[in-house]
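Methods — Computational structure assignment.
A single polypeptide chain was analysed. Its primary sequence is given first, followed by the predicted tertiary structure written as structure tokens.
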Amino acid sequence: MSTATTTETALTDGLGAKLRKTVIGAGFAVVLLVPKVLSLRRDERSWVIFRMVLGVFGAALVILPIGFFGSYFLAVAGLVAFIVAILLPPPKATSGIDDKARELGALGVVDGGTFQSGSFAVPVQLFVGSQKLWALEADFHPLLVIPVAELISARAEETDGAWTLRLRWADRGALFSYSGVFAENLARTAENTVQSVMHPSVPVLPRRRAASA
């Protein structure tokens, strides 16, 4: 009896952990999607097309369900989408992050969490380029500049329930810590982004002895 109860409890805990991880992953995907949608505002043509598609889709949801399915829920959702398309703000100019990334020639920008060095900790953004990696403060002041060619490793790690990103290059190292619900996702995203520009090390092949004559 106790064995069955223990097994059932373990299965319940396992399913609960998987469900929690799935919900967090879905939420993180939405968080990543929102900036991409908002980035369309910096391209006037793309933003106008997006608003038109959203408006047409919303109008279709209002008309079609009433005529064919009799579902007022879809009609309400379509009406909301149509109103949102009308009320969406006009295109806006590029952000400071985009301008700075273009200036530096960065291929991508990711959340660097909190950069820890000595007695101080500062929130940073990681600007990742093919030649250099920059850790910049909110005012774009560089705290750290790393030549990509010297990077040895970039690893996301969990320690005592907290997530960190450790970078090693030459004879130095840097630590970036993450907190909150999306800590693991942010750390792994930064890890994958940095690793994508790192040059793979060339394996050293053992020399073959010359065949004796």
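Note: The radius of gyration is 25 Å.
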